[in-house]
Structure formats: structure tokens, C-alpha cells
Design a protein that fits this description.
With 240 residues, the protein is α+β, with helices and mostly antiparallel strands. It is built from 7 helices and 12 strands. The protein has 2 domains: 127 residues, Barwin-like endoglucanases (Beta Barrel), CATH 2.40.40.10; 79 residues, 2-Layer Sandwich (Alpha-Beta Plaits).
């Protein structure tokens, strides 16, 4: 066990990860969980949000951190503040309320987004005022609109389309030798076929990925294995 963590620490220091602190830019991609009261009652999440407002929860980013959430399917985006630090099932990268999901026209069966942290500026102050006005409209909506919102929150089951596949970005490294060595260690330690790992080179870094996945079951299985092994920052990449 100690040997495993020693090896992992060595590779983490050789690896480049996005840092989840307010002083740095946070960049991630993956699935978001759309808030449902039932998930709170079933202890899937540890804090409540309010589906009458544009609210966002994250497991690491501090409340007040400004993030931009983009739906890559249509490039619609929403900029807002993290309201609460929340825990949620490990496959997800973010918790959002239904108004946020509707704003970016997010498909509840394929809630894949890209997330990046931003610095506060005059543009965001103007957006805050606009968000406040939109929240007032939600409050004054007819009861039938509330029913529509409740129905959206009940569709929190991710379904992988036959036209879409996903990959898991394990890490970005500076050395191809480090990547090849880690690939062999993970394949043996986690009982994953070495052919399932992919190596992609950029100008300055080498990416180690696994996939592709056309099944949500296999994606969850390998994602959990990497998490249990000690990889904290895993990104899910959608291959359109």
C-alpha cells in the first residue's frame, strides 16, 4: 500500500493539473448534477440549493469564486458565483440548479459542460444585475412553470448516445517516459487492459487518457478505479 502511494506521489509531481484555488485559474470538463431535493433527502448531496435561483455548488472551489459554465453542444454559457461548497457523487464535477441548466439549454440526459474560473470585473457586475432580474421572473412564474422545473430535476440519469463517446483525462505530463511507465503501472494495479490507455502529445505536454467509453457503466467503473487509486483531478472528455 505504501509503495502504491509513493509511486503515485512521484507521478503527481511530474504531472500538470488544474489548481482549484481562487488565486489560480480552474479549468475542467465533465458532467454536472442538476439539483433535486430528492438527491439531498437520499444523502447523495450534503447541502440544499434553491431551484428558484441561479445557484452553483462545487466540492473544492470556495463560495464566491466566479465560474463560466459552457455547454459545448451549443456554446451557450452562464457566468455566476459558487454559492456553496458541496459534496456530490464522484462522477460529477459540479452541482447546478435548474435555472442554470435551462439558461445553457443543457440536456439532462447528457449534462456535459466545460468549467473555467474567472476574475471579477465590471462585466460580471452587470451580469449579476441581469441575473437578479431573471430570478425575479422565475419567482413570478405561473404554477405550471414550477411543474416543468420539477419535472426536469427528476431526469438526473445520464444516458450515453451511440453517436457520442467519452474519454478520461488522467493527467498531463512533461515526459513521454513518465507516461509510459505510469500506463504500465495503472494497467497492472487496476486490472485495466493496457490497450485502453491513450497517449496524446501536444507541443509542451503529453496527455495520458483512457477510453473511449460508449457505456456509462464502464466509464463509471474506470473513473472510480482512478479515484480510489488517488487521482483527485480527473477530467472527462467528450468525443463528438
Amino acid at each position: 500500500m505504501k509503495y502504491r502511494y509513493f509511486i503515485l506521489i512521484f507521478f503527481i509531481f511530474a504531472c500538470s493539473y488544474p489548481v482549484a484555488k481562487n488565486d489560480f485559474s480552474y479549468n475542467s470538463s465533465g458532467f454536472v448534477l442538476i439539483y433535486s431535493e430528492n438527491d439531498y433527502l437520499d444523502n447523495k448531496i450534503n447541502k440544499k440549493l434553491n431551484n428558484d435561483f441561479f445557484q452553483i455548488g462545487h466540492s473544492k472551489l470556495k463560495p464566491g469564486t466566479i465560474v463560466k459554465i459552457t455547454n459545448p453542444s451549443n456554446m451557450l454559457s452562464f457566468v455566476g458565483k459558487i454559492n456553496k461548497r458541496v459534496t456530490y457523487p464522484e462522477l460529477y464535477n459540479l452541482l447546478i440548479t435548474i435555472p442554470v441548466a435551462k439558461k445553457i439549454e443543457l440536456d439532462s440526459k447528457d449534462p456535459f459542460v466545460e468549467i473555467v474560473s474567472l476574475k471579477k470585473n465590471k462585466s460580471f457586475v452587470a451580469k449579476e444585475a441581469k441575473i437578479f432580474q431573471e430570478e425575479k421572473k422565475i419567482h413570478s412564474s405561473a404554477p405550471i412553470e414550477k411543474v416543468k422545473i420539477d419535472n426536469i430535476s427528476k431526469k438526473n440519469t445520464i444516458e450515453v448516445s451511440s453517436k457520442i463517446s467519452y474519454s478520461i483525462l488522467i493527467g498531463e505530463f512533461y515526459s513521454i517516459n513518465s507516461v509510459n511507465e505510469l500506463k504500465g503501472i495503472l494497467a497492472k494495479s487496476l486490472n485495466i487492459n493496457e490497450k485502453k490507455f491513450m497517449i496524446k502529445k501536444t507541443k509542451s505536454k503529453v496527455k495520458l487518457m483512457s477510453g473511449t467509453y460508449n457505456s456509462m457503466i464502464s466509464l463509471k467503473t474506470d473513473y472510480s478505479k482512478f479515484k480510489e487509486y488517488g487521482f483527485e483531478e480527473l477530467n472527462i472528455i467528450r468525443n463528438d
